[in-house]
Amino acid sequence: MKETPTFTFGAQNLPDKEYHQWLIEIKQRFQQSQIKTAIKVNTALLEFYWSLGSDIVKMQTEKAWGSGFINQLSLDLREAFPEATGFSVANIKNIRQWYLFYYQELTKSYQVGSFLEMPKDFGLIPWRHHTEIMRKCNSISEALFYIKQTISHNWSRVQLVHTIESNLFERQGKAISNFDTQLPIPQANLATELLKDPYNFDFLSLGKDYSERELEEALMQNITRFLLELGQGFAFVGRQMELRMPEGQSFFPDLIFYHIPMKCYVVVELKVTLFIPEYIGKLNFYVTAVDKLLRGEGDNPTIGLLICKDKDELLVEWSLTDVNKPLGIASYQIKEIIDNTIAEFEKNKLKTL
Q1: Cα distance between the two ends of the chain
Q2: Going by DSSP bridges, is the β-strand pair 243-244/250-251 parallel, antiparallel, or unpaired?
Q3: CB 235 within 8 Å of CB 223
Q4: Which residues of the chain register pLDDT less than 70?
Q5: Domain with CATH 3.40.1350.10 in the chain
Q6: In which element (H, E) is residue 306 found?
Q7: d(CA 300, CA 243)
Q8: Is residue 61 helix, strand or coil?
């Protein structure tokens, strides 16, 4: 049995704090070098796939080669490189389609040559991520959105697939807000991209005619999923957190979060009904109260988010017209589970007889 090497320090040469700090830095530098090496290897592989895809498209166009030559190419490459795993017929077809996906879209709008260079950012995510993006996205703009998000958030392939299937591209930045008039431009842009519409609460199991309290409790029981749906950077602060006025009167907003990158509190109010203008006034007050009672030095202005069952967009826009706090209004979607008891089933059955 191979023993792990150990070192014994005498009392006169025990490692001090400086040594331990230096050791931490060495470990970090080594990890960074491993990441850089992995990125270089991945980039080189993807650049090869990109050029191979370009060659295949060119050969099929200029030489009028059919799809059968891909089978032969797969056999020849696997024979030449038996240890390689990327030369199956299915993967070579993916390589061709990957290049063609971007090439065909770009040639519709821009004049490009016979070869389109691979964007540099492509090398920052693995090949399997690219294949999922290619299969599930309908346009280059959507594909580039998910590539950018994957790089920013370091998504696994499972996280990427879940996010695409939740249609984040269509939902992100779509909430109605007054951020452009109530926040400085840099923060307004960030806040707009922060919110979604609709929010996807399909991870909840709620019966018909559920109440706001039941919705709130269900979200708290699934707080991890809820935080994932809100997006990266949200930290949970409290539920029904007391906001006590100087003269003793207390108020309790549904949920309070803190968005770490934006350095601001986010007050979330939940409504299981259609939006009505009165909801704005209450949320506006909560945002003011959090600014007065919780906001500290260095914190940016608090943001309010109302998530309701549905909304009339024009009504929301009019309701926000003269509001002086940054508020966003969004809807949510949820799969309602209707519990039919045996008695209810039999009752409905009798009605049909």
Answers
A1: 78
A2: antiparallel
A3: no
A4: 1-15, 64, 66-67, 105-115, 336-353
A5: 170-333
A6: strand 303-308
A7: 19
A8: helix
